[in-house]
Amino acid sequence: MTAAVRAVTERAAAIEVHGVHKSFGGRRVLDGVSLTVAPGTVTVVLGRSGSGKSTLLRVLNHLEKPEAGHVSVGGELIGVQRHGDRLKELREKAILTQRSRIGFVFQNFNLFPHLTVLDNVAAAPVATGRLPRAQAQALARELLGRVGLGDRTGAYPRQLSGGQQQRVAIARALALRPGVILFDEPTSALDPELVGEVLSVIKDLATGGTTLVIVTHEIGFAREVADEVVFLHEGRVVEQGPPAQVLDHPVHPRTREFLSKVL
Amino acid sequence: MATTPSDVRDATAKYTVEHRTPDAEPPPVVPRRRIGRRLSAGAALLVFALVLRSVIGNDAFQWDVVGQYLTTTAVLQGLLLTLWLTGVVMVLGFLLGTVLAVLRLSDSPVLRTLSWGYVWIFRSTPLLVQLLFWFNIGALYPTLGLGIPYGPELFSIKTVNLLGPTLTAVIGLTLHESAYAAEVVRGGILSVDPGQTEAAQALGLGRLRTLRRIVVPQAMRSIVPTAGNMLIGTLKGTSIVSVLAVHDLLYSVQLVYNQNYLVIPLLLVATLWYVAVTTVLSAAQHYVERYYARGTSRGLPLTPPQGLRIRLTALWALPLGPRSTRPKP
Fold it and tell me: Does A79 reach chain B within 8 Å, measured CB to CB?
């Protein structure tokens, strides 16, 4: 499966976040976040709820527009264009094209309930004009087979368990052959016994060489797959490094406090 | 006496052994006897039968006249016009209403305000007033022309010649209908989880495609019941165009009873047709709802015949029905 998944993604892309600010209703959620993610690596973002983890992830594919600072994926600025010393927002269509190169997996799956599992996965390649319907469906079948759901292609999402739905969501993200996949707490909405099946699919992607950014509370999983762990506190990166360093020998008191509560 | 684990095991073992013997059937569950339900069903049937008998048996209704006029050409033509008007108004009204709803939910404050203003005007004036206004538009704007503002006119036509009664009715009803349809569609769109739009955006789907493929099909679940309601309302509401002398179903029977003074039977003719069409539409609505219920639950809702069969089966089990199916004590 590992080799097969590797073939799915086109090329792993690097991510650069530079001085991103974002606030909601006067409350500063991201306060000058800068971050570099090397291509093909796995970065796990940790932090208390409200620390800005999800917002950071959503800024990466321009679901949230930063007020200052910029994000680039694979060397291309996301959502904006440089005009002298300013950044101008791109047209909607250009942003959509950029988004289609970045996979996003939501906490609540957000599968399309009125479409079958197969159509959920095949929808985006067809809609974005990348593949004709028949080919998109063949790809969808292949990807669903890889996440272990080859026999449920005709089912509707609500007929599946949470873990199965999240695996479909991962297949849906893979269908665009993204260079980067972002996971926003992919197992937080799952029953404990279903967490493992989703994590094992993500683990396979991790060893497959795609760039992954994962917001999660699964510390054990972070230790196992992460190349880099980032700890966010009040909209700032307070600690960053390999898991052995950040998880086992945290320097910042906030990180220590967080880990003592979670572990 | 305290229960030790071995007691529990013994009890379990005994139960299992008992259960395995072939002649020990598991105890049957006898459904509760719903006396109240049966009595009320019987009472309702009785009242229904009495009312039906009094209506059919009352010669003042002049059922022979009803039968005589039910399928006359004038009535059928009126019915056809009513159906046509309802269909056209409903389709155009919902097309315009959908556009208005999308504008209302757009990011642009200009479009939002325009849509809001339209809905405000057309919902805050009575339909009858609107229809009479369109009917008399010729008095306000005697000619309609195409030209350059403050410049030469390229072409002009008398408004009275352009707008016959039927076209006036279509315009008046459609504009009114679309204001309500806009709110129905907007409500439907708002009922869809915003996560759906977000997921579509994250996949790179454009706004229009997201709306058409992802949001509207899901919104239909809450749009259809209200739209069905509006359709039936419009069917009967089109009778208001009789004030414009449009030959719809009601106006057609009015023309007849103005001549022969058989008011009640002719109103019954119109009523029977309205009831018949409404019944067909209600059944159709059920199937449309069933279609849009795909994927929303593990099973689909019953079709009307399935529901009817279950209700008839329940009737069969009334005290009047055969009792042999009930197990004896």
Answer: no
